[in-house]
Amino acid sequence: MTTPERVSNIREEHAQKALLALVPGIVLDILGAVLISYGREFTALGYVLLVIGFVATVYGAVQLMTMRKVRGHVVECPFCHTKNEFQEVPEGDVRCEGCHRSIPIVGGQVVAIHQVRCGFCNHLNYYSDKSTGLICEECNREVPIALADGTSTKSRAAFESYTVHDDERPYDLLLAEPGNKDEELISCLQKMLALNRNQVKQLLEDTPVLLLSGIPRRKAEMLKAQIDMHHGLAEYRVSQQV
Predict the structure, then answer these.
(1) Quick count: other Cβ atoms within 10 Å of Cβ 88?
(2) Which of 31, 37, 40, 142 has the most crowded CB, counting CB atoms within 10 A?
(3) Cα separation of 172 and 236, whole Å?
(4) Pairing state of beta strands 209-215 and 73-76?
(5) Is residue 204's pLDDT more than 90?
(6) Other C-beta atoms within 10 Å of 74: how many?
(7) Is residue 109's pLDDT more than 60?
């Protein structure tokens, strides 16, 4: 499923085109006027420069007007309330520009967000009706949640004790293929790995590459799902570290 283009990117593109046309256009107009003022021998060249500069200036002005007219569909982030504007209505999850969380979307509508505190560290976590599991962002332990069908991710006894874990072995998360290397995948990996944009782009060039090591299996599964959702291909396996 293709993520619709952000309106901010479209506006930026028109702004760049306007700048690249307006500045040379104004310079050519000034230079043409100066040449005309010098005398008959430069008049023809001066008029040519004036025409080219005028065309460039008009093109730049059109790009500015087009930029101002660009409108899209606003998706408000349920986590931080940042308004994300897209060219079309998104049919799948999108990344928030404000908090960089994945905004859950079904049928073009934002899915309701719920809150739950970790029973181990008391950290506040968020999940949606689309969630099939939850790993605490603070301590990496599994947090039991109620699913959309009314069931729980754990049994009643496990829910009350908060101590049952199916697999305590550490796992490694690897990026096998970078897919299309689109902006959504880059943003996802930036937040996941706490790296800057250039570092993430370098990782994408070096695939297959180890992303995280020694993490719980459920966290590895959920991070793999995030990467797969953004057209990358990730794998996880039992860590070889002692």
Answers:
(1) 12
(2) 142
(3) 5
(4) unpaired
(5) no
(6) 10
(7) yes
